[in-house]
Amino acid sequence: MAECVVYKGEDGKLAGFGDKGGRAWLRFIKAARQLAQGETLHFTWFLPRSPGLHKRFFQKLAYLFDMQEQFQDADRLRAWLTVGAGECDLVPGPTGKMVALPKSIKWHKLDETEFAELCRKIDDFLWSDYAQMFLWPHLSPQARYESIERLELQFR
């Protein structure tokens, strides 16, 4: 199985990105042209998410990390938020009890629509009493609410 990133060049033609991508694209074009009548060729394609949404998500995560009181590592906070948003797989842990493992949010794992939906679910989770009580256990409910409100206003 080959994989390549395709872009439209200045000449208006599609091409593979980079040396490896260029070779993979040419192999695909050759295979498509050599198809006999009735033969098939399988391929999948992926529309990557926007760099702007990706950047905004990680800026918001960093801002929240600086605000909260529970996590010493931003990756752990992100994993907790992903699980809280319901984007996880349940697997048996070492004692047989089910454990939630966060799904990947790697650039090539989620397209724009899927990533935007994850962001929305995380925002919804952050508005929950549970998330707010966990992140700021010593604050009053009003102060917790205001913390999330401040986060949201920062990233509108």
Distance between the terminal alpha carbons, to the nearest Å? Answer: 41 Å
How confident is the prediction overall: mean pLDDT?
A: 92
Series of secondary-structure elements, N-terminal to C-terminal: EEHHHEEHHH
Uncertain regions: pLDDT < 50 for 5+ in a row?
Answer: none
Structural class call reads mainly alpha
C-alpha geometry: elongated
Question: Roughly what percent helix?
Answer: 40-55%
Q: Order of strands across the widest beta sheet?
A: 1-2
How can the largest sheet be summarized? 2 strands, antiparallel
Q: How many E-type strands?
A: 4
Radius of gyration computed on alpha carbons: 22 Å
What's the helix count? 6
Explain what the structure shows.
The protein is mainly α and 156 residues long. The protein has two domains: 45 residues, no CATH class; 104 residues, no CATH class. The protein has six helices and four strands; from the N terminus they run ββαααββααα. The mean pLDDT is 92.
Show the helix and strand layout.
Blueprint: E1 6-8, E2 14-16, H1 18-33, H2 51-67, H3 74-84, E3 88-92, E4 98-102, H4 112-126, H5 129-135, H6 141-154
Antiparallel strand pairs: 1-2, 3-4
Helix pairs in contact: 5-6
